[in-house]
Structure of C2H2-type domain-containing protein:
Amino acid sequence: MLILDVTEVKGESQELNEVKEKHQEKSSSSSDTEKNVSQKRADAKGSFSCSQCGKRFTRKGHLEVHMVIHTGERPYTCPQCAKSFTCKGSLKDHFRIHTGERPFTCPQCEKSFTNSGGLKRHVRIHTGERPFTCRQCAKSFPSSGELKRHIRIHSHTGAKPFVCPQCGKRFIHRGHLNDHLRIHTGEKPYTCTHCGKCFTHQAKTLKRRTRMHPDENPFTCPQCGKSFLHKGHLNDHLRVHTGEKPFTCPHCGRSFSHKAYFHVHLRIHTGEKPFVCPQCGKRFIHRGHLNDHLRIHTGEKPYTCTHCGKCFTHQASLSWHMRTHPEETLKRRTRIFSQQMALRALEIAEFCLLPVPYTSTT
């Protein structure tokens, strides 16, 4: 079975999001002049209206493509994995996952994609373009999918519309629910091609291949020798050595090496807190902060003192507690003293290596 790129494998709603995004992009990028021309064409040729939502199209074919959003029809099926699609072009793009073909390459960083839509969304990382805007808070996003996920923050349902029929657990994304359902079914569809071990999640399969079978990763870092399955991952890693930080905050000027870190930082300025506690409704900027908070409700205390066995909810609380033990305090002081002595020895060594100034005796 072929190992798929985790960044390429999308949820079931990805294709419909792309169809919607194409329509939204056309409407948002058109000028008033273009709109007038389109209206004249519609008047001349006759317009085609969607009976479900009233959206109008100048061509019948465009209306038919749009209608699959409402009907859910998927007549085109992949012969390799049986996944179905709404249009032939989407099937063609999907099939490249199996063949490994990535014909669309970013001119800036050379990262490649299986379809033009993926490249277009990626290029916005470099251009900073964010054409999709939230009507409630005016925050903008580079893709319609990100806007859709953001809008759930404003909903009154806790932004978790997908419910597990087995245990009632709720999820923000349908893909997360699908992953969770495998806990109940025991399904492990992702297999490592090198050792045969099976996994429930695509990310775990890719992680195992990267860590356990590094010889099969074709892209190697010239600095440290670490290897990667995809060139884009190597490019991200290289910033560790170069110090490059291409993602800059427009509010405070702070720069970041990775897009994910940049987006998390932006929440400090926007006040966005997308992670909601299902118990008390408290919101958090980071998922990790929510996980820590949830232990207040569950009573879980995973951090245990090795000296007295006392348990704590947070790692920081354990660290402070450890200082109450004399032996731990002694270890800490010894470690600090050793570091100070090492620094002093380095200063002396540097001083001894300084050139001796020449003094004339005549």
Q: What stands out?
A: The first helix runs from residue 14 to 29. Residues 1-13, 25-45 have pLDDT under 50 and may be disordered. DSSP finds 13 helices and 20 strands in the chain. The radius of gyration is 27 Å.
